[in-house]
Amino acid sequence: MSHDDETPPSTPHRRARPQKKRHVGRWILVGLLVIVLGAGGTGWWYYEHLNGNLKGVDLSKQLDEATRPKKAVAAGDATNLLVLGSDSRSGDNGKLDAGNVSGARSDTALLVHIPEGRQKAVAVSIPRDTLVDRPECEKHDGGKLPAAHRVMFNSVYSLAGPACVVKTVEKLSDVRVDHLVEVDFAGFKGLVDAIGGVTVTTDEDIHDSKSGFDLPKGTHKLNGTDSLKFVRTRYGHGDGSDLGRIGLQQQFLLALLSEVKKQDLLGSPTKAIKMANSATKALTTDEDLASLTSLAKFARSMRGIDPNTMETIMMPVAYDKQDPNRVVPAEPQVTQLWKAIRNDVDIPESAKKSPASGG
């Protein structure tokens, strides 16, 4: 059975709640500064320890430069960052969920566009149930995964890993991906626990019979384990669709970053170190970011981003005519969206409206 077949079909969708603006925190940079400025050998030991936590993917070896999208002249030094949330359901991850799904998956994918000047940013969520054309890729064992038409977007990671997801996103959008950041969900749990939990408010009960996660409507402070179940839940929220889950993930992202922003990291080096340790354990990046020095430099380049100018939107999709439980990129909205990002111009409001908007 293919990974496509293993993924339970989604149900018909309802309208999503209005999108909210999102803030990209700079807590990694603050944590690193605390560590680097630490006294004597202890600070250096922590630096080396955290540096060793990071894992890198050499995209230059797995992607053919000749076939990758070229950066538009109009884009200047704009940067596109692909953020993946990986969810293997094995090892530590397997202990965090009652689900029984084999193989590694990417349940979350965001293409974050940071315009020239680094004063604002937009993150585009790509629904996991989107049917896409997958290019030929290198598999985990070094063999070739042939190109395929109309495959589930989230199956790409399962079959060939993050480099193939980069290649697929570039084929889908014709947008050059400059950097990759993958966050392992087990490490995500550690990060939430390190900051003492995250507060969320829901306006409806969540009863996910598949995972056993129950959350009455209202305000709750979630620990790492419950936070992971919150962002994973699908069948216990709204219409049970992947598009609805994107709304929960975006809500949690805002709550998490707001909590981090409230933390007094400079006044609590111990907490900063715990957060940085959890974060670096959870991260896999492209080869250019796979060191604390590079990661800190990248974080510093985004210090000018105003939280009030950053937003998260969903890639416009429509229900597939052959399978209403799947979605496909919606035209002409998606063409307008990718063209605006390629040329580093404002995204038209019309390009943010999705015909399929379950939530």
Low-confidence blocks of residues = 1-42
Q: What class, by secondary structure content?
A: alpha+beta
Number of strands: 17
For the residues shown, what is the average pLDDT? 78
Strand order of the largest sheet: 1-14-9-2-3-4-15
Please work out how many helical segments DSSP would assign: 12
Q: How would a crystallographer describe the biggest sheet?
A: 7 strands, mixed
Name the helicity range: 25-40%
Beta-strand residue fraction: 15-25%
Q: Can you characterise this structure?
A:
The chain has 359 residues and is of the alpha+beta class. It has 12 helices and 17 strands. The chain has helices spanning 3-6, 27-36, 40-53, 59-62, 153-160, 162-173, 185-194, 224-232, 242-262, 269-282, 292-301, 333-342, and strands at residues 55-57, 79-87, 105-114, 122-125, 131-134, 137-138, 144-145, 148-152, 179-184, 198-202, 206-208, 213-215, 218-222, 283-286, 311-314, 317-319, 327-329. The strands form 6 sheets. A 7-stranded mixed sheet has the order 1-14-9-2-3-4-15, sandwiched between helices. Strand 3 and strand 4 (122-125) form a beta hairpin. The longest helix is centred in the C-terminal third of the chain and has 21 residues, at 242-262. It is globular.
